[in-house]
Design brief:
The complex is a heterodimer of chains A (about 325) and B (about 425). With about 325 residues, chain A is α/β, with parallel strands linked by helices. Helix content of chain A is about 30%, strand content about 30%. In chain A, strand 8 (about 205-210) and strand 9 form a beta hairpin. In chain A, helix 3 (about 95-105) crosses helix 4. The radius of gyration of chain A is 23 Å and the shape is elongated. Chain B is mainly α and about 425 residues long. In chain B, about 70% of the residues lie in helices and about 5% in strands. Chain B has helices at about 5-20, 20-45, 50-55, 65-75, 90-100, 110-115, 125-150, 155, 180-210, 210-215, 220-260, 270-275, 280-305, 310-315, 320-335, 340-350, 355-365, 370-395, 405-415; strands at about 55-60, 80, 105, 120. In chain B, strands 2-1-3-4 form a 4-stranded mixed sheet, sandwiched between helices. In chain B, helix 1 (about 5-20) runs parallel beside helix 11. Chain B is elongated and about 95 Å long. The two termini of chain B are about 20 Å apart. The chains are: A alpha/beta (about 325), B mainly alpha (about 425). The interface between A and B is medium-sized, with 29 and 20 residues.
């Protein structure tokens, strides 16, 4: 197979568990060197997709390629995987665990040992290197496992919910490391349900909901394309100019009025009308939509934590989700 | 087939276990406990004061003392001959009351005829001592009587001799049957195989429940992981047994003779050397252990992989336990009648071979071709079991949720 510039490619990948379809005809591409986010609510098929990428589950249909070829040996030596459910050998010394994980990914032991100490030091666990994993706090264990994921310096990092369970400080540390790998040219794919994290980190985002891909795009382009939809205004004086064919709905958010425009409407017309009406316009701001809002719009996924976005199409699909999940 | 990833698993499993405190305690502790079991009773006995172990023997016959004294001494007594005279009973009675001797034994003409004797003592000796005392006296009397009639008393009393010659002329082991070694050895093989096979199951279960298996499986074949586990744990078992063997060899060959020389009252320990297995038995033992271990550890790995908790595993291993009970129940029968069709059949069934063939090999006559055949069958069984278990393992190790039913298991095996 030829090199197609992709680190990862899924073609029509489908996985069923009994009657339940967990992932439905999923096409997905991750260009080399990018940071991509795989986003979706709990139970949408993120983890199942990732497990198929990692060869832990075999797809019922479709095909996974790594670096433009069948996965094969590349999966062992060129991919680092952090599963959603964290697991360590609790009785092992931290450094031994990392060396072991390096070894099964093809790093010779002496080199693995050197890297293990370097990484453990770097993540501030130097004093714990020769302690047993079970002596560490959960957050620290998670760091050790993260080290185990990257110690063989993979070309592709697959991280399933890497930030969950970490305090904000350690989330930042991890984010920093992910950025560093990105800068070195490593391709990164991570799944998350934390939208702001995805928004900060991702170049590309892919949203899946209920086993299906809903959206797959470059984040910047996506935001630019979505920008025209909402205008935040503040003004003094008459408000009759707010009634017009361009405006679908008006909502009050964070002290400002948000005008939700109809498809294809020109905000310029509203501004004109406002100026003419004699209102004193203090703010007229095209709101860059938050990722969260874009996705709620596209996925039509209801959200208990939503902050007043159009909910018309939202199905009752968010049952069982915690309010603090961004979904 | 076996790549560096397998060796990484083997090394991890091995080092992790060998370094653990429990391994050190069990490996060094078990021989100590065993040694203590052998040493403590004679030592305790020897701690009694000299007076408490001394008995005077008044030999009215004039022929028994020389025969009885060595036997009593071997049994831990100190013996003193006392010539008969009219006041001897009163005199010895005083000595015993004063605590100079534990008691005195009266032998007379009646003893020669019926084996009866009287022991006067301040406190009754233990049942075992009474028994050995009685035995020695009876034996001495019998020996004397037989010799009077010109009979080779020593061989008669040793139980005679029976030579077995097979009419078919088959090669057989002609050594004396060693029932104890056959039985104890088989039970020991059973214990170590079960112990380490269960260790494989627990390790599998731990990897599964801690979820680390997901990372490992993403970078190696499940089959390799299973193989690594089995080799690693098996190597630990072999290490442990080599340590045990070396320690007991050292004690028996280097430690025991000087000990006995220094403390003659421990002479009863000399017998230990005789039951100690020779090279041929050790070779058989290793062969049966290794083959049995591979079969059972593969099965137990599969059980571990299909369960999600210790409780589930307890239940799921029940069929295996039932299989394992059969050879243990049949063991005595097989040792007693090693050539019966039942014994031959059972001992050739691979899952029973390590215990029953061992019992036959040690306990009596087994044609060599049967031993050879049993090893061939075990090899075939290992391949077959590993194939099935590997498939169950592969599916099970990543499966959460309820334990599979038998039809589901069958599907795993077919589809994996």
């Amino acid at each position: 197979m030829s090199d197609d510039g992709l680190a990862l490619r899924l073609e029509g990948v489908t996985k069923r568990f009994g009657k339940h379809t967990a992932v439905d005809r999923f096409d997905f591409e991750v260009p080399r060197g990018t940071i991509s986010g795989l986003l979706g609510p709990n139970g949408s098929g993120k983890t199942t997709s990732i497990r198929m990428i990692m060869g832990i589950l075999l797809p019922d249909e479709g095909k996974v390629s790594l670096f433009g070829a069948d996965p094969g040996e590349a999966r062992r030596t060129r991919v680092g995987y952090l599963p959603e459910e964290r697991g360590v050998y609790r009785k092992m010394k931290c450094v031994d665990l990392v060396v072991f994980l390096a070894e099964i990914h093809g790093v010779p032991r002496p080199e693995g040992r050197r890297r293990a100490y370097a990484w453990i030091e770097r993540l501030g666990l130097g004093a714990w290197a020769d302690r047993r994993v079970e002596d560490l706090s959960k957050g620290m264990q998670q760091k050790i496992q993260f080290i185990g994921t990257v110690v063989h310096e993979p070309d592709l990092l697959v991280l399933d919910e890497p930030f969950s369970g970490l305090d904000p400080i350690n989330q930042d540390v991890l984010e920093e490391i992910v950025r560093e790998f990105h800068a070195k040219g490593t391709t990164i794919l991570f799944s998350t349900h934390l939208m702001d994290q995805a928004e900060r980190l991702c170049e590309r985002v892919c949203l899946i909901s209920k086993a299906r891909k809903v959206l797959d795009a470059d984040l910047k382009e996506l935001k630019a394309a979505e920008r025209k939809g909402v205008v935040a205004v503040e003004f003094e004086g008459p408000d009759a100019w707010l009634a017009g064919p361009e405006i679908d709905r008006i909502e009050e958010r964070e002290g400002a009025l948000h005008l939700l425009l109809r498809e294809g409407a020109d905000h310029q017309k509203i501004l004109e009308r406002g100026v003419r009406s004699g209102a004193r316009i203090l703010k007229f701001d095209l709101v860059e939509p938050r990722l969260h809002e874009i996705f709620v719009r596209h996925a039509g996924v209801g959200s208990a934590a939503g902050d007043g976005l159009p909910m018309g199409a939202a199905p009752p699909g968010s049952a069982g989700m915690r309010a603090e999940d961004a979904w | 087939m076996v790549g560096p990833d397998v060796w990484a698993v083997v090394r991890r499993e091995y080092l992790q276990r060998v370094r653990s405190r429990w391994f050190v305690v069990a490996t060094l502790g078990a021989p100590l406990v065993m040694g203590a079991l052998f040493l403590i009773p004679p030592l305790l006995a020897s701690r009694e004061g000299v007076a408490e172990r001394t008995i005077a023997v008044v030999d009215g016959t004039g022929v028994l003392y020389g025969r009885i004294a060595p036997e009593l001494e071997a049994g831990g007594w100190r013996v003193r001959e006392q010539r008969w005279h009219a006041e001897v009973v009163t005199e010895l009675r005083e000595q015993a009351r004063a605590g100079d001797i534990a008691g005195f034994l009266m032998l007379d003409e009646l003893t020669l005829e019926t084996g009866e004797a009287i022991l006067y003592t301040t406190s009754p000796p233990t049942a075992v001592r009474q028994l050995t005392l009685r035995g020695s006296i009876g034996r001495a009397a019998l020996e004397y009587q037989l010799e009077q009639r010109g009979v080779d008393a020593a061989s008669m009393l040793a139980g005679g001799d029976l030579r077995v010659e097979l009419l078919s002329g088959e090669t057989t082991r002609t050594e004396e049957p060693r029932f104890l070694v056959a039985y104890v050895g088989a039970v020991f093989i059973y214990m170590v195989i079960l112990f380490y096979a269960v260790a494989v199951m627990r390790a599998t279960l731990e990897e599964k429940t801690s979820r680390i298996v997901e990372v490992i499986i993403s970078s190696m074949e499940p089959w390799h992981l299973m193989l690594g586990k089995i080799f690693g744990v098996g190597a630990v078992g072999l290490t442990q047994m080599v340590v045990w063997l070396t320690m007991s060899l050292a004690v028996v060959t280097a430690g025991l003779p000087p000990l006995i020389a220094a403390r003659p009252e421990l002479a009863s320990l000399e017998g230990v050397q005789e039951v100690f297995p020779g090279v041929d038995l050790l070779a058989y033992f290793s062969g049966f252990f290794v083959c049995g271990y591979f079969m059972y550890s593969s099965l137990y790995a599969a059980v571990g992989a299909m369960c999600n908790s210790d409780e589930e595993a307890q239940q799921a291993q029940l069929p295996l336990i039932l299989v394992l009970v059969v050879p243990i129940l049949m063991l005595i029968n097989v040792i007693q009648d090693p050539m019966s069709p039942l014994s031959v059949g059972l001992s050739l069934f691979p899952l029973f071979t390590p215990f029953l063939m061992w019992g036959r090999v040690v306990g009596g006559a087994v044609p060599l071709w049967q031993v050879g055949l049993s090893f061939v069958l075990m090899m075939l069984a290992i391949v077959g079991i590993a194939w099935v278990a590997g498939r169950i393992y592969k599916v099970g190790i990543l499966m959460a949720g309820k334990r599979p039913t038998l039809p589901e298991l069958w599907r795993w095996v077919r589809e994996a």
